[in-house]
Design a protein that fits this description.
Blueprint: H1 14-24, H2 40-60, H3 65-77, H4 81-94, H5 99-111, H6 115-128, H7 133-145, H8 149-160, H9 166-178, H10 182-193, E1 194-197, E2 200-203, H11 208-220, H12 224-238, H13 245-257, H14 261-274, H15 281-294, H16 297-318, H17 323-335, H18 339-350, H19 359-362, H20 365-379, H21 383-396, H22 405-417, H23 421-434, H24 438-450, H25 454-467, H26 472-484, H27 488-499, H28 507-520, H29 524-537, H30 541-553, H31 559-573, H32 580-597, H33 600-609, E3 612-621, E4 627-637, H34 639-644, H35 646-669, H36 671-679
Antiparallel strand pairs: 1-2, 3-4
Helix pairs in contact: 2-3, 3-4, 3-5, 5-6, 6-7, 7-8, 8-9, 9-10, 10-11, 11-12, 11-13, 12-13, 13-14, 13-15, 14-15, 15-16, 16-17, 17-18, 18-20, 20-21, 21-22, 22-23, 22-24, 24-25, 26-27, 26-28, 27-28, 28-29, 30-31, 30-32, 31-32, 32-33
InterPro entries: HAT, HAT_Syf1_CNRKL1_C, Syf1-like, TPR-like_helical_dom_sf
Pfam families: HAT_Syf1_CNRKL1_C (PF23231)
Function: Involved in pre-mRNA splicing process. As a component of the minor spliceosome, involved in the splicing of U12-type introns in pre-mRNAs.
Length: 680
């Protein structure tokens, strides 16, 4: 038992062990001593011992092929050919499927120039194991080396009956070509492509490359008509179900070499129209190269368009609701295709209706219909089909949920271009009845205005304002129409109705338009009355400033006192305003007025009314109520407010006292400064 299991101080690695064994040459065995045989008895004794050793090895394990081969090769080295044959025959009785035994047996016979014996062995080998190609290759090669061409051909024929692999047929063909037997080679190619048995066509190698090799064989030997016929047979044989781009590329290149450029174009076009695009990338590439070499600009563009069309087809097939891909595809198709093809693509595109009835999903889709209608009208010049497209689109839209005013207006404009005004009015009337929208009313009114149908415009405006009474723009446009027509009372009545509405989207714009209307009519009293009515609703600083500017521009003798009076009223009204910036804006406008038109007294007065700008701090709070620090801001102190608030006076006095205290402290810190000042 090992008591101390600790590692030794000196460790020996496996590398050191191997290096030491190499240095000492422990694994090298000394060569056996050389034996010299001097007489026949000694030789026979050596042969007996050696044969006994081989026989013992074979007896121990009969299936080890190397024992048989070593035994036979030893007998062969002693020129005991008959004994070697016997050994090989015994080995074949044990394992006749062993390829190595047959090869070594036949090589021994060929090495010793026993040709008939070798033929016999090869014949037995190919009969026993006909699927071992090595036997056939060596057999035919031996016959050819012996100059027995007929015998070699006979072996090839026997081999071909077994329908071997592709290389075997090529070996047979090359064999015939070595002896200039082109007709025989052609017949082998025919059998290689199609094997006839019992009047039934049985496919042996229906691969495209074999047909191509056959055609190139004919082309190589200058049988161009035969080569073309082979290609044509191949195209007919595979038909449209098993089309392969490699066959058509090879066919086209053959015709290109023969300078038959029109045939090449026909081949490429036929293939591109029938082969699935994902399997025709190489075909596209070669067709493009051909057109660049021998075609014109038109041919090159056709190829590029065809390739892009395939890409778009893949995109829309992957996602039929990808309307951007449909737009690109249609733009490509419209550029260079007949009308029927374009219509077919448009029909496919508009057939992909959005599955969800929400307007945001339909916004891109509706432009497919618009483009379709414009194509029929402008490109195809088919007004009847255009009308059908518009009507089909309008029937498809779910007007109870949403609609597209653009489609109704485009349809109406189309009917006007066709000089069919009743249909246009009927379409717009239907749209307003089914799904009234501001845009539809505006488009219909604009149409009637262009036609100078003012009574219809009035009726439309009335319906529009019934539908959307809060729309200030509609009220303004209606009043402007009446103003243009010279009916001032109607325009004023419209404005009065408008400002009397309980809810408006832009009331300030409406009031401004009404005031501008009265100013244009030079009704200054009405304008002042309007301003006063507006001030009853709002005390906004801009209204006061606008009123003052109106009084200033009214052009009357009392314009300056009136303007100053407006500023006075505004200042009094703005004292209670929380927004001090608006009050400052008013005072600055008043000061600008006084600077231009006022006297020294009025200027001095407005200067006294101007506020003092001071900096203050206030505490901030976060959304959760916690302390968020302090911020600085500017505030305005108005003199009028100071007189009414004694606390502000106290604050000012405290501020002055603090300033005096700071000055006295500064003087105490620097006494030399006081001495210097007294001496000076």
């Amino acid at each position: 038992q090992v008591k101390n299991k600790a590692p030794a101080e000196v460790q020996i690695t496996a590398e050191q062990l191997l290096r030491e064994a190499k240095e000492r040459e422990l694994e090298l065995l000394p060569p056996p001593p050389r034996q010299r045989i001097t007489d026949v008895e000694e030789l026979n004794d050596y042969k007996l011992r050696k044969r006994k050793t081989f026989e013992d090895n074979i007896r121990k394990n009969r299936t080890v092929t190397s024992n048989w081969i070593k035994y036979a090769q030893w007998e062969e080295s002693l020129k005991e050919i008959q004994r070697a044959r016997s050994i090989y025959e015994r080995a074949l009785d044990v394992d006749y499927r062993n390829v190595t035994l047959w090869l070594k047996y036949a090589e021994m016979e060929m090495k010793n120039r026993q040709v008939n014996h070798a033929r016999n062995i090869w014949d037995r080998a190919i009969t026993t194991l006909p699927r071992v190609n090595q036997f056939w290759y060596k057999y035919t090669y031996m016959e050819e080396m012996l100059g027995n061409v007929a015998g070699s051909r006979q072996v090839f024929e026997r081999w071909m009956e077994w329908q071997p692999e592709e290389q075997a047929w090529h070996s047979y063909i090359n064999f015939e070509l070595r002896y200039k037997e082109v007709d025989r080679a052609r017949s082998i190619y025919e059998r290689y492509i199609l094997f006839r048995a019992l009047a039934v066509l049985v496919l042996v190698h229906p691969d495209v490359k074999n047909w191509i090799k056959y055609a190139r064989f004919e082309e190589k030997h200058s049988y161009f008509a035969h080569a073309r016929k082979v290609y044509e047979r191949a195209v007919e044989f595979f038909g449209e179900e098993h089309m392969d781009e490699h066959l058509y590329v090879a066919f086209a290149k053959f015709e290109e070499n023969q300078k038959e450029f029109e045939r090449v174009r026909v081949i490429y076009k036929y293939a591109l129209d029938r082969i699935p695009k994902q399997d025709a990338q190489n075909l596209f590439k070669n067709c493009t190269i051909f057109e660049k070499k021998f075609g014109d600009r038109r041919g090159i563009e056709d190829i590029i368009v065809s390739k892009r069309r395939f890409q778009y087809e893949e995109e829309v097939k992957a996602n039929p609701h990808n309307y951007d891909a449909w737009f690109d595809y249609l733009r490509l198709v419209e550029s260079d295709t007949d009308a029927e093809t374009v219509r077919e693509v448009y029909e496919r595109a508009i057939g992909n209706v959005p599955p969800i009835r929400e307007k945001r999903h339909w916004k891109r889709y509706i432009y497919l219909w618009i483009n379709y209608a414009l194509y029929e009208e402008l490109e195809a010049k088919a007004s009847k089909r255009t009308r059908q497209v518009y009507q089909a689109c309008l029937e498809l839209l779910p007007h109870k949920k949403f609609t597209f005013a653009k489609m109704w207006l485009l349809y109406a404009q189309f009917e006007i271009r066709q000089k069919n005004l009743p249909l246009a009015r009927r379409a717009l009337g239907t749209s307003i009845g089914k799904c009234p929208k501001n845009k539809l009313f505006k488009g219909y009114i604009e149409l009637e205005l262009q036609l100078r149908e003012f009574d219809r415009c009035r009726k439309l405006y009335e319906k529009f304002l019934e539908f959307a009474p809060e729309n200030c723009t509609s009220w303004i446009k209606f009043a402007e129409l009446e103003t243009i027509l010279g009916d001032i009372d109607r325009a004023r009545a419209i404005y009065e109705l408008a400002i009397g509405q309980p809810r408006l989207d832009m009331p300030e714009v409406l009031w401004k338009s009404y005031i501008d209307f009265e100013i244009e009519q030079e009704e200054y009293e009405r304008t002042r009355h309007l301003y006063r009515r507006l001030l009853q609703r709002t005390q906004h600083v801009k209204v006061w400033i606008s009123l003052a500017q109106f009084e200033l521009s009214a052009g009357q003798e009392e314009r300056l006192p009136r303007c100053r009076q407006v500023y006075e009223e505004a200042n009094k009204a703005m004292r209670s305003c929380e927004e001090k910036e608006e009050r400052v804006m008013l005072l600055e406008a008043w000061r600008s007025f006084e600077d231009e038109f006022g006297t020294d007294a009025t200027k001095e007065r407005i200067d006294k009314l101007m506020p003092e700008k001071i900096k203050k701090r206030r505490k901030l709070q976060a959304e959760d109520g916690s302390d968020a620090g302090w911020e600085e801001y500017y505030d305005y102190i108005f003199p009028e407010d100071t007189a009414n608030q004694p606390n502000l006076k106290l604050l000012a006095m405290a501020k002055l006292w603090k300033k005096q205290q700071q000055e006295s402290e500064a003087a105490a810190m620097d006494p030399d400064k006081d001495i210097d000042e007294s001496q000076t």
